[in-house]
Design goal:
This protein is mainly alpha-helical and 137 residues long. The chain contains 5 helices and 2 strands. Helix 2 packs across helix 3.
């Protein structure tokens, strides 16, 4: 047996919680916890006594369910939840700022100048640069 939050809302405001709880085979305190989980407003204390005396108070509105909230209750514990909405696309291109790249040289200055520093250095038989002491120091 599955009960939607709308149906529970109508039943809770049509008759006392104790009689609705008996119909579902649960205690009235358990039904109060179910109402809290499903975000179903309950009549305030003294509502049924005032109604019996002919005084009516306004019925609280059932709030909309939020994404991820439980929307049904079942005795077996299986519940359905309100679906999560799809993410919204940005409304205009100005909401996302794209950083412009500065113009950069194709090679770093150290890499570009390296061949000039090594052109007069002798090589070994294996093709490696040969270390030579700096003269004059």
């Amino acid at each position: 047996m599955t009960v939607s939050r709308e149906k529970l809302y109508e039943e809770i405001w049509a008759e006392p919680i104790t009689s609705v709880a008996k119909r579902y085979g649960v205690s009235d305190s358990f039904l109060v916890r179910i109402c809290k989980r499903l975000n179903v407003p309950r009549p305030p204390m003294g509502y049924w006594a005032k109604r019996a005396a002919g005084k009516t108070s306004p019925k609280a509105l059932l709030p909309d369910s939020k994404p991820g909230d439980e929307v049904e209750w079942s005795r077996d514990g299986m519940t359905n939840r309100a679906p999560n909405p799809m993410p919204k696309a940005p409304e205009n291109n100005q909401s996302r700022r794209i950083r412009q790249r500065k113009s950069r040289p194709s090679k770093h200055r150290l890499i570009a100048d390296a061949p000039q520093h090594f052109k007069d250095v002798p090589q070994t038989d294996n093709g490696y640069l040969k270390w030579t002491p700096i003269s004059g120091q």
